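Hi R.,

Here's the input for the zinc ion complex you asked about:
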Amino acid sequence: MKIQFNKIKTQILLLPIAVILCACVSSSPASSADAQMNAKALIGNTAFTKFTDDFIENLWEKNPTWALYNGFYKFDDKLNVPTAQNRAIELADAKQALSDLQKFNPKTLSAKDATDYFILENALKSSIWYTQQFKSFEWNPSSYNVAGAFGLILNTDYKSMDERLRTISKRMQNIPAYYAAAKENITTPTLQHTLLAIQQSQGALGVFESSLKTKLSESGLSAGEQKEFDARRRAAVESINSYISWLQAKEQELNANNSARSFRIGKELYAQKYQFDIETEYTADEIYALALQEKERLHSEMIKVSHNLWSKYFSAAKPSDDLLMVKQLITEISKEHTQRDNFVDAIREQIPALVAFVNDKNLLDQDPSKPLVVRETPEYQRGIAGASINSPGPYDPGANTYYNVTPLDNYDAAGAESYLREYNDRMLQILNIHEAIPGHYTQLVHANKSPSLVKSILGNGAMIEGWAVYTERMMLEEGYGNNEPELWLMWYKWNMRVVMNTILDYSIHTLGLTEDQALDLMINQAFQEESEAKGKWRRATLSSVQLTSYFTGYKEIYDFREEMKATQGADFNLKDFHNEFLSYGSSPVKYIKTMMRN
Ligand code: ZN
Ligand code: ZN
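And here is the predicted structure with zinc ion in place:
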């Protein structure tokens, strides 16, 4: 079962500021909600826990590569071959698991188990839909790449290097069959995914042509083992080269006949994918309409703030074009930034102020026994610049949660200046709220109070991102930064990116938005740099729906809080609202709402 694998892979590969969140899980202590259940429900819960444990063990056995990425190494020497026959087996398995799951009644389960139930049900239905309807195995050649998992085994010290090399040797046996199946599956690909696959497969060669070769020569493997290893390695190189030539021929054919599949997935698939990936009460059409409204609101707020701030920064008259005025002011304020050598320290120094503000204002519970460790991103994780929360995987409980910050070592002077202007003094504070406190890191600490393997593997991305975005606005509304207009202006720009991501994704995939129109929207209405806008266009042509998760989750949470304020009146307490909201873990917001309304 390839449950939401596309989504997870896309997030890891394409997010500029990647959040790789995996809640850490030890045993499964009863939550307080469990304790209040009656005896009958407790029997149900025990059976349900057994069901989910078996389900996940089975999931790893069927998806050994995905298991590796979650730190589960039992099936590390297995490489699945993506044949039509194996896909049929996976489909039957998913249908069987769905029918087994539906023997439970979520109404008799505790809140923790009921949310797990709904997440599993969606994941299984989604897996069936991906295989039967979305069928990206037919048109996305970049979904075939074996290198990542081999690199991971090579770079992760979970057993001795010699043992890992023996595992790799076994795992390499299926590589020729793997690429043969890929060619068999691909019918009419998109040009964009074909080009990406050529580029990434050329990258994959590096693992087999050099990294593995070097490690083998330094190993303690016997002469016989080495010979076998090297034969398999050479067969792998040959298969990847043959896949690349095949894709290059395919590309020529697609261009010559103008026969490539469109990268736009279209209205119907988009509407369905939105429901499976995001799990919200909104439809795709509704969230698009809300994003358009929010763009207008943000523009009018930005214009208001800019009129007031203009004379503080400029002696010249304001431009007659309001959005141009906003842009010039943003550019000016962005010049207040830290220096490149101080980037990591600047972030580290801000964390205690955030902790103190959350405590002083009574915004939510924090856990001083689980400190966040700010560090420079380790070399092997440094693909993309930026900052991200790196939490322990579900099978590594007790390990630290790191706030990885990549130093700007790889930038030339102009590149570093541009990056520092983007992450200027104000923006850096918003980034820290989002990634750390009370954003991703704090959400994770709360989620871990009621550990769920299901949620740590299949947790809802829109809730996770929505929470982080929600906290930015909540902190500013509570007075963080003393209501400084400059900080608000920067937040409006930052938040406009989230809103624009939704507008772009929907418009590109369902309304035929062109590249020029998209760049115009991003540069002139969302105040983005051309390089960022071009990168976003590319990302939106290679993925779909994921870009809407931030705005959807944020909108749901913010509106729900306003609803609770209105219904509870004087009884509403912000801290209680936050603590309860987070107590359900990384569940889709629509289920959290149902439970909190009861
Ligand atoms: Zn500067
Ligand atoms: Zn985030």
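One thing worth noting: The pocket of zinc ion (ligand 1) is lined by residues 335, 337, 417, 420 (CB under 6 Å).

Cheers,
M.
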